[in-house]
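Forwarding these from the shared drive since the link keeps breaking.
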Amino acid sequence: GGIKSYVAGISDALHMELSGHGINCTALCPGFTRSEFHDVMGVRESIDRLPEFMWSTAEDVAELGYQAVMKGKVFCIPGIFYKVLTIIMGGVPKSFKSWLPSIRSFNSRKVPIIFRPQCELIYWK
C-alpha cells in the first residue's frame, strides 16, 4: 500500500542524496517469505494455498538483501517472479493499482492478494 510505496520512494531519495558521501540505502522488497509472520497473523492455512514459486525462504531473502547492500543497490527484489511482476506493474496506471488491493481472497478474514513486491526493510551501509 501507500506506506510501502513511501518506504520505496524515501529509500530511493536517501540513496540519491547520500551516495556521494559513501552512504547508500537499500529497500528490500521480498514478496512472500516463509517465516512466523503468517502464523502470528493467524493466516497460515489460507496463505499456504499460494503456489510454491511465489515463496522465498527468510535465509535467501536475507542473503540477497545483504548482497544488494554491499553492491550499493537501491532496491533488492528477490525472485524472478517478483522482478517480472514489478516490471509489469510499472506499466499499469495508478488508478488501476489503487483498485487492486480491494480484491480479497483466501478466507473469511479477507487477506488481500499481494500483486507486487512490498518493501519490508531498509538496510544501511
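-- next protein --
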Amino acid sequence: MHVSTMLVFWSFVRNSVVLAIYLLFSVACFFTVHEYYRIEYLRQHIQALKEAIEIDGVPVQGYYPWGCIDIVSASTGEMRKRYGMIYVDMDDEGNGTLERRKKQSFDWYRNVIATNGEQL
C-alpha cells in the first residue's frame, strides 16, 4: 500500500470512530439501527485491502472488523460509542434490557463474507 493511501486510511479511521449511530424506530415499534457510515467505512477498508493485494502484492490473510457486538469503550467506559454489528440495549450507566439486535451492517457484512468480497 502506498504511503499516501495509508495516511488517508488512518485519517478516515480516526475520524470515523467518533460518528454517532442514528436510531430509527418504525411505526410498529420495531427497532432498527441504520448505520450507512459503518458500511461505507468497512467497504472502503476492504477495497483498500483488495488494492494492497492486487497492486502491491501484500500477503493479506484476513480482515476482522473491530468487534461483532457493542461493548464498553476501553478508553472511556462508554456504551454510547457503538462499535459492533450487533446492538446491545444498555446505556452508559448500565441500564437496559441487554437485548441484542442485528444492525444493518450485520447483514451487509454477512453478504460480503458469502460472496468472498465480490459484493461490496
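The chain has three helices and four strands. Residues 1-30 have pLDDT under 50 and may be disordered.

- D.
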